[in-house]
Amino acid sequence: MDIYLPIAGLSVNMLVIVGMGVVVGLLSGLFGVGGGFLTTPLLIFYGIPPAVAVASASTQVTGASVSGVFAHMRRGGVDFRMGAVLVVGGILGAGLGAVLFRLLQASGQIDTVIGLIYVLLLGTIGGMMANESIRAILAIRRGQAPRHGMRRHNPLIAALPMRWRFYRSGLYISPLAPLLLGIATGVLTVLLGVGGGFVIVPAMIYLLGMATSVVVGTSLFQILFVTAATTMIHATTTRAVDIVLGMLLLLGSVTGAQIGAHFAQRIKPEWLRLMLALIVLAVALRMALGLGWRPEEIYTVQPA
Fold first, then answer.
1. Which listed residue, 13, 16, 208, 266, has the most CB atoms within 10 A of its CB?
2. Around Cβ 65, how many Cβ atoms within 10 Å?
3. 139-187: per-residue pLDDT in tens?
4. Contact of 33 with 188, CB cutoff 8 Å
C-alpha cells in the first residue's frame, strides 16, 4: 500500500511508516524519550533523505510526546516548574540549532555530520547507561543496595548561583543547570530531529539528581514544546518537513505512547535503563556501519 511523499520525492509503504510510528511511540511512553533518536535512523535506513528525515521526525515526536505527557500527568509524574525551565532553554537552543543546520546544509555536509553525531552521541550515552544499569542489577541480585554515586551533590551543579526549589523533583539547585541542559537539547533537536530524551533523561538522573518518579513525564513535557518549535523552524527555514510522512508516523506513535506509559509503571527502573541503553547502542552500531558501507548506487539524483 504505497503513498507518495511530496517533499522526500519518493513512494513508501504506508503500513511500514505507520509501524515505525507505533514502535517509536511505545519507546516514548516507556522510557520518556521522544523517539526521534530511533525515528530518524529508521527513516534514513528506509531510503528517506537525511534532511527530510530529520525535519519530519520532529513532527512525529511532538505527537508522541503529547500522548505520553497526558498519561504521566494522570499519575502525577510531571514536574512543571522544572519542565518550564527546560522548555525555555530548549527553545533558545532550537534557534541556535537552526542556524547551524542551515550552515551545514549550505556546505553540503549535513548528511555526514548527522551520521557522525549520531554515532558519537548514541555510542557514548548508551555505553554509560548500560554500564550503570548492569552494575545496579548485579548489586540488587547480590542483595546490596545499588550505588548511585553523588548524583545530588555534583560539584558543577552545586557551584552555580541563584538556587530554586523544585519540590516535585526533590531538588534545591540553580535554574541555570536545567536551562543549559535545555539549550543543548534544543540544538540536538534541530540538528538530529530527536526529542533529546536519550540525552535529557540520563542528565536528569545523573547530573541533576531528579527523583526517578518524575523524570519520564518531565522529559516528555519538555520534548513536547521543543519539538513543536523545531517543526515550525524547519517548516519556515529549511522547508524539509514532509507533512504526509509526519502524519503517517504520528498515526502510529500516539497509540504506541499510551501503551508504553502503561508498561513503564510495571517494569523496574534499572531494567528500563538497560533496555534503553541496548536500543541506543544498537542504533549507534547500525549508523556506524552505514557510514562505512559502500552504497549500491554511488550517485543518486534528488529532486530540487
1. 208
2. 33
3. 888 877 655 544 454 677 777 888 888 888 888 888 888 899 889 888 8
4. no
Dihedral sign, CA of 28, 217, 240, 282?
Answer: negative
The three-state DSSP-derived secondary structure of 130-188 is HHHHHHHHHHHHCCCCCCCCCHHHCHHHHCCCCCEEECCCCEEECCHHHHHHHHHHHHH
Whole-number Å distance between alpha carbons of 74 and 237: 37
- The size of the chain, in residues, is 304
Q: Which residues pair with 13 in a beta bridge?
A: 2
Q: Is residue 281 within 8 Å of residue 126, measured between CB atoms?
A: yes
DSSP structure class, residue 2: E
Q: Domain residues of the chain, as ranges? A: 12-291
- Provide the pLDDT for residue 88: 92
Q: Looking at per-residue confidence, does 49 or 32 come out higher?
A: 49
Cell, residue 187:
540544538
Element (H, E) at 5: strand 2-5
Q: How far apart are CA 273 and CA 267, in angstroms?
A: 10
Cβ-contact 169, 214 below 8 angstroms: yes
Contact 3, 244 (CB under 8 A): yes
**CA dist 82 to 88, 205, 251, Å?**
10, 13, 29
Distance CA 227, CA 34 (A): 9
